[in-house]
Design brief:
alpha+beta, 20% strand, 2 domains
Length: 440
């Protein structure tokens, strides 16, 4: 029986040996694979932190550029948003919901073969109010010029505008003294007037001093009941000048003897409906006049959109300028890391002799570069956010803050660290361990 079992052991032995060899090969491959990643990433971070502590002053000075660059990005975006909001608010104060209808050209033939301008009429305004939904206010406007008697035989040429009480709301005007005429003044054909502030100061010395005074227009005395101004100075680019007097349209029409108007102002309840409403108004008025007559609708929407685009472009240009600071800081990080590699040649050689791979050396120095840039970026971003938040907290100014600027600043800091840390990391990884151990 013993001799019979020997051949079985001999035939089983090669199979057992094969299994042992296969197991050994697998263990060797696992060991080889683990050798390629002997260090955990937490250890790499610890080494980067230790390196930072060993050269705090140099690394802090290197980080300073990243702090300034990241803070600049956040602050530039904040300033751009603040400027944009301020500019849009100024333009909007003219009347973002306002639609200004003007007669631009064309004529109608008279009975004696004469031609007359095809002006708009008050009936056009009433027709628009009946047919266009979403209108909040409307006002016709008559324009006349006359010399008013200011006493002592002196006269002054003024521009007289006949408007409705809703004109104040449509044009978003500000009453600085007294009051604006109301519906009762308009229906009662009351002889009252509202002066623009520069004219009131010129004639009576102050806005308050003008209230209650009397001016004579074509021999008719008008009592000044208020003084107004534009919410934003248009420098004479609107229908309002520094010699403007407003009177009720129902009174002004007696000076012309017709129902024609120079302009018609409308105001919508919603800013989003301005473009649609202006197209409807233009169509209605055009349909009530000759096809050859030309009318135009002016709205603030294109101006606001253009101003927004200009502000965005300026913000983008300034932000790109801030990115230059980060690039310069990245060059500083690269120089610092190259010097760091040169100073730690002996350390790199010892680590390689103890089994550190080129991949680990590369990862260590790249991590240090990213640690530098990202730390500086984080500090700069916090500073950049702290300034506008401090202004919002300690002052009444609500400065807008864009959180995307903080994300962009941090992401850029990381990218700068990776890009400018790659060269020093590769140089450290390529060092020959034999040469490094002999380096003095």
């Amino acid at each position: 029986m013993a001799t019979a079992n020997i051949p079985n052991l001999e035939t089983a032995s090669p199979s057992t040996e094969s299994r042992r060899n296969a197991g050994s090969r697998r263990r060797f491959e696992r060991t080889l694979a683990s050798a390629r990643k002997t260090m955990m990433f937490s250890e790499v971070l610890q080494l980067a932190y230790d390196s930072f502590k060993a050269s705090k002053v140099r690394f802090l000075l290197t980080m300073l550029g990243m702090v300034i660059g990241s803070a600049s990005i956040v602050l530039v975006v904040t300033l751009g948003l603040t400027g944009k909001e301020y500019a849009l608010n100024l333009i909007s104060s003219i009347g973002p919901n306002m639609i200004e209808m003007q007669y631009s050209g064309g004529s109608i033939a008279g009975p004696d073969n004469t031609t007359n301008p095809d002006f708009m009429t008050r009936e056009d305004m009433l027709a628009v109010q009946e047919q266009v939904p979403g209108l909040a206010a409307a006002s016709p406007m008559l324009e006349a010029h006359d010399n008013v008697n200011i006493g002592d035989g002196l006269t002054k040429n003024v521009m007289i505008l006949g408007v409705s009480p809703q004109y104040k709301d449509v044009r978003n005007s500000v009453v600085v003294a007294g009051r604006f005429f109301d519906d009762q003044d308009a229906t009662g054909h009351t002889k009252v007037a509202v002066l623009v502030e520069p004219l009131a100061i010129t004639l009576f010395g102050s806005a308050d001093g003008a209230v209650g005074q009397t001016l004579s227009i074509r021999g008719i005395p008008f009592t000044i009941i208020g003084v107004f101004k534009e919410r934003i100075n248009t420098f004479g680019q609107s229908e309002i000048s520094e010699q403007t007097m407003l009177i009720p349209y129902t009174v002004a029409r007696y000076f012309t003897g017709t129902d024609t108007v120079k302009e018609i102002f409308f105001s919508t309840k919603s800013t989003s409906s301005v473009t649609t409403a202006s197209a409807q108004i233009l169509k209605i008025i055009q349909g009530r006049h000759r096809a050859s007559s030309v009318y135009k609708a002016f709205v603030m929407t294109p101006v606001l959109e253009l101003m927004g685009k200009i502000a965005n472009m300026l913000t983008l240009v300034l932000t790109l300028a801030a990115f230059v600071t980060l690039i310069v800081s990245g060059v500083g990080i690269m120089n610092s890391m190259l010097a760091n590699v040169q100073a730690r040649v002996k350390e790199i050689g010892i680590r390689k002799a103890l089994g550190a791979t080129s991949r680990e050396i590369r990862l260590q120095f790249l991590t240090e570069a990213v640690f530098l840039s990202l730390s500086g970026g984080l500090v700069g971003t916090l500073i950049g956010l702290a300034i506008p938040f401090s202004v919002r907290f300690f002052t009444p100014f609500a400065i807008p803050v864009d959180w995307w600027s903080a994300i962009v600043a941090l992401a850029t800091s990381m990218i700068v660290g990776i890009v400018f840390g790659t060269l020093p990391a590769n140089r450290a990884a390529r060092l020959n361990p034999v040469d490094t151990l002999k380096y003095e």
